[in-house]
């Protein structure tokens, strides 16, 4: 049985984390309550992803937080990551699942209700749903869906969903009200002067939303 908690999902960005770096940002975010950490670096190449991924794995070891690798299946397998996240423009879910095996967590981005409804729960463990809002963090993001769109996609997704795109602590209540199992954030943590405190603020809102 796979066990993972989507509630506070940090997606790393090497530029936004440049001050203290991705590994230290992840360490502080997990201390503040992040439950999942995704290594996302669009320019590192597989060797760079493996190097950073190994350091992240060591930093997260024993914390309970799950390490997910974005896009790069070879890096995910080599590192022994807990999961892989792919989008509609990456490899298809069946190919990814065949490569990573049955035990690794597989996340898939969905931007429309049709894509969400088409997810095969035998292959995919969670959906990344968004963007809720436009965000400068992902230049090529799709049309924002807002909280109404989020609720529609979550409702038809056969697996738990994590909301993404422009989300901050003040959006937590609406994310959970829409039925999502959590929120994935980049700049709300990576770009902050104190990533641990920023994560704690989001975690506190999550506790309130769940109460
Ligand atoms: C949790 C989560 N949700 C969505 C995405 C976006 O994935 P994708 O559409 O493949 O875009 P890139 O991140 O690869 O630019 C994600 N990474 N994580
Ligand atoms: C990595 C990513 N994927 C998105 C999607 O819509 O699929 S939006 C996004 C970036 C989210 O960054 P921030 O929290 O700084 O807005
Ligand atoms: Mg991708």
Automatic annotation (TrEMBL):
Q: In this record, what's one Pfam family?
A: TMP-TENI
The biological pathway it contributes to is:
Cofactor biosynthesis; thiamine diphosphate biosynthesis; thiamine phosphate from 4-amino-2-methyl-5-diphosphomethylpyrimidine and 4-methyl-5-(2-phosphoethyl)-thiazole: step 1/1
Q: Which InterPro entries match?
A: Aldolase_TIM, ThiamineP_synth_sf, ThiamineP_synth_TenI, TMP_synthase
Q: Where is the Thiamine phosphate synthase/TenI domain?
A: 8-189
Q: What does this protein do?
A: Condenses 4-methyl-5-(beta-hydroxyethyl)thiazole monophosphate (THZ-P) and 2-methyl-4-amino-5-hydroxymethyl pyrimidine pyrophosphate (HMP-PP) to form thiamine monophosphate (TMP).
Residue sites binding 4-amino-2-methyl-5-(diphosphooxymethyl)pyrimidine per the record? 38-42, 70, 109, 138
Identify which top EC class this enzyme belongs to. Answer: transferase
Question: What's a single GO BP term from this record?
Answer: thiamine biosynthetic process
Q: Which GO terms describe its cellular component?
A: cytoplasm
Q: Which family does it belong to?
A: Belongs to the thiamine-phosphate synthase family.
Cofactor dependency: Mg(2+)
What is the name of the protein in this document? Thiamine-phosphate synthase
């Amino acid at each position: 049985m796979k066990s993972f908690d989507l509630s506070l999902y940090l997606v790393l960005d090497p530029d936004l984390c440049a001050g203290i770096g991705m590994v230290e940002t992840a360490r502080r975010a997990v201390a503040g309550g992040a439950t999942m950490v995704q290594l996302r670096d669009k320019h590192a190449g597989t060797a760079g992803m493996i190097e950073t991924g190994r350091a992240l794995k060591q930093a997260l070891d024993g914390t309970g937080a799950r390490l997910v690798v974005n896009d790069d299946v070879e890096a995910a397998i080599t590192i022994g990551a807990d999961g892989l996240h792919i989008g509609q423009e990456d490899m298809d879910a069946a190919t990814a699942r065949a490569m990573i095996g049955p035990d690794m967590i597989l996340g898939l981005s969905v931007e429309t209700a049709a894509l969400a409804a088409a997810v095969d729960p035998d292959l995919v463990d969670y959906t990344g749903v968004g963007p809720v809002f436009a965000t400068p963090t992902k230049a090529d993001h799709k049309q924002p869906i807002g909280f109404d769109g989020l609720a529609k996609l979550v409702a038809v997704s056969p697996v738990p969903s994590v909301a993404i795109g422009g989300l901050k602590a003040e959006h937590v209540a609406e994310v959970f009200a829409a039925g999502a199992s959590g929120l994935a954030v980049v700049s709300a943590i990576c770009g902050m002067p104190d990533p641990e405190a920023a994560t704690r603020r989001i975690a506190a809102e999550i506790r309130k939303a769940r109460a």
